[in-house]
Every structure is written in structure tokens, then in C-alpha cells.
């Protein structure tokens, strides 16, 4: 039953043209050096407790290097909600499991190889050390190891960046979340957003008529944006 459910979900996302898979080639960048061939990748260039970053299209994924080619990272995963089989949970997280994990707010701090963690992207090392004083490498790695297992997840308030910054610097913080909140603040305070919400409310009333179900959102959204601006 479980396999059938995930099969159907994978087919659904395929039909929706959701393609996240990337070629399994790893590039490692320890600024300014960079590698372009998998044969050149050597996890010996990393030190235990290093903070690793993997730039994606819309976001950056983070992990803590544990040594011996292993990386601890927090990743959304819905599978622990429906099974406790360690073999199933440890298998590579598919796109379906990841998306369902985001929706169900469930994640795992798991250990994967450097290659699986990078998943075809370049790796950046300890870029935030210039702004924050790091803990010693052993303490950072131990913090990551102590948190391995299922955890709650929030796209904005408890994501992979919160996890690694807690491990590396001693405080959970996400610069990606802060940047997103600043962007949302600028959108809300923009007078054009308020005007667009008013026009949308008028169109809703014109096309769907005046009733409690249409009048409340048509008035509430512009009023909320007006008070927040």
C-alpha cells in the first residue's frame, strides 16, 4: 500500500512537469578553488565540523561535515510519518518524499555521502565564518550528530540553515528566511500591492456577486494591507 501511494504521487508530480533531478557530478569550491570532475573531488579537503553549502536554483542547501565523506543535513521527509523501517528511511530522499515533508512539516537530520549531499552542484565551504565566530570543528560535528533523526520542519523557521548555524555558530538563524521576510515586507508596503488588492476585490464582487463569502475577503485583504503598509 505504501509503495503504491508513493508511486501514484511520483506519477502525479511527473505529469505536473516537476523536475528537480540533476546530473550526479560533483563540483567542489573552497573559494576560490573549484573542481569540475568527479575524479577531482576528495572529501579529505574538508575538516570535521565544516559548514557546507550547495547552491540550488531557488535556495541554498546546507550541511555539516562529519568526516570520512559523510555530511549531516536536515531535509524534509514525510516517510518517517508512515514507517519506522530504518532501511526505507535511509534510502535517498525522492522528490515526492521531500515535497510531502514540506507540506506535512516533517523532516529528518540524516547522514549522506558528500556526493549524495551535493547532488550534482558545487560545494561552498565555511563562507559565513567571516561574519560569525565558529565553534571548534569537533563541537560543531557533535552537535550535528546529536540531532540525527526525525525533527519538525518549517520552511521559514526551522530549515536546513537553522540546523547548520546552530551546529557551527551556536545559534539557529537563516539568512534566506530573513531575506525572504524583507522582500515580503517591501511587497506589502508597496502601494501598488494595495491597489492590486482593491482591483481584485472589485473584480470578485462584479463576477461573483455581493455575498458574505465574497464581501469579507474583498474588504479584508485591502484593509489588512492598508494597516500593514
Automatic annotation (TrEMBL):
- The organism's place on the tree of life at top rank: Eukaryota
Ranges of residues in domain LRAT? 51-176
Q: Which UniProt keywords apply?
A: Membrane, Signal, Transmembrane, Transmembrane helix
Q: Which residues form the signal peptide?
A: 1-23
Entry's Gene Ontology cellular component terms: rough endoplasmic reticulum
Q: Which residues form a coiled coil?
A: none
Name of a matching Pfam family: LRAT
Q: Where in the sequence is the active site?
A: 160
What transmembrane ranges does the database entry give? 194-220
Gene Ontology biological process: retinol metabolic process; vitamin A metabolic process
Q: Is the Cell membrane keyword given for this protein? A: no
Q: Give a GO molecular function annotation for the protein.
A: phosphatidylcholine-retinol O-acyltransferase activity
Q: What is this protein called?
A: LRAT domain-containing protein
Q: Which organism is it from?
A: Periophthalmus magnuspinnatus
